Structure formats: C-alpha cells, structure tokens
Amino acid sequence: MSETSERTPMDWDQRFKDNTTPWERGVLHPAFLDWRESGAFDDRERIIVPGCGRSPELKAFAALGKQVIGADLSGTALAAQKAMLDGDGLQAELIEADILLWRPDTPLDGIYEQTFLCAISPRLRQEYEQAVHAWLKPGGKLFALFMQKNEPGGPPYGCPLEAMRELFPDDRWEWPDGDPVPYPHPLLDDKAELAIILTRR
C-alpha cells in the first residue's frame, strides 16, 4: 500500500527517513514502566505493537521473553527495530503492512497501543476497533494510551475519553474502575495521554 494512499495522507516512511518524528520519546514510556513494574504484562505471552515505529517498547517486550510483533507502514522504522533487536540478540516478528487488514493465525494476549490510534484518520476508528477486537482472545488486554488534544486535525488526532467510550462499547470491552492515569507528553506540549487497560470480552 502506498504511504500516501487515501487511507493515510502521511508519508510515514519519509518522516522516519528525515527524522521528523516529534512524537517519538526515544525512551520507554512511563506508562509502560508503570505497567511493567505492576506486573500487568506478566501473563501476556503474545503481544503486538501496532504502528511501532522506532519505539523501544518492542525491544523491551522481547527482553521480557514475550512473543512480540511489531507492525508499521515504514520499512525504515522496521529496519531500525531489527537493528536494535539484533544488537541485543533479541527477536520479534516484524510486519510491514496495513495492519488493519491483518489477522493473526491465533488470537493474541495483548496489544500495546501508544501511537497508532491517534495517527490514523478518525474515519478508520471503527475499522480499528473491529481489528483489535479480532486480534485478541477473550480476556486479552488492550494497553491503551489515548491522546488528549483539543486542537482539530492531526495527526495526532485527539482521542477524548467520551469518544473512546463509544468506540470501545461495554458489550465488547470491559473498562476498569476509577479514573485513567494521565501521562503528559514532553515533546507534544505536555498533552496528556490517558493510560487505560481494556479487556476484550
């Protein structure tokens, strides 16, 4: 699929080639660190990171012994991931594809959602929900970081909590009790990402 097709106006591969990637933290997300410390990943064996880019979380999951899949439209980003994995003698499955059209051979235990949902057009969100629901086994976890943004347009596109409640309905997803934890993004004007773990019914 072309990087600039009707499904995405952004040439993601060129962005990585040019290093015009202001969304990249370059370090493990603090929510990832908190989830890892709390043991939230312990019983998750097969995990996918959609839109993984060059995020270090993919290598961190591999270091935990997980069967991890990294997916992205950018071959440049995936080449960087392979180099990071190879450098530490780690392995992951890397997929260069329109991941919304992909389905695993067997359902997965977890999805780490950090930069994918906020990057795709809002008109693709229903397709996204259908895809991630299909990827997970019942009881599978969606580790989500929902970008909070008031300005129109994107990417990143805002993922307000009310809209996420509609996108991930209670009859298909179990929402946790309590308020989500906000994590400000230091490279995006401290816009908050809300950390929520959803469970597929």
From TrEMBL:
Alphabetized UniProt keyword annotations: Methyltransferase, Phosphoprotein, S-adenosyl-L-methionine, Transferase
MF terms in GO: methyltransferase activity
A Pfam family hit: TPMT
One GO process term, biological-process aspect: methylation
Domain of life of the organism encoding this protein: Bacteria
InterPro entries the record matches: SAM-dependent_MTases_sf, TPMT
Protein name: Methyltransferase domain-containing protein
Biological source species: Hyphobacterium lacteum
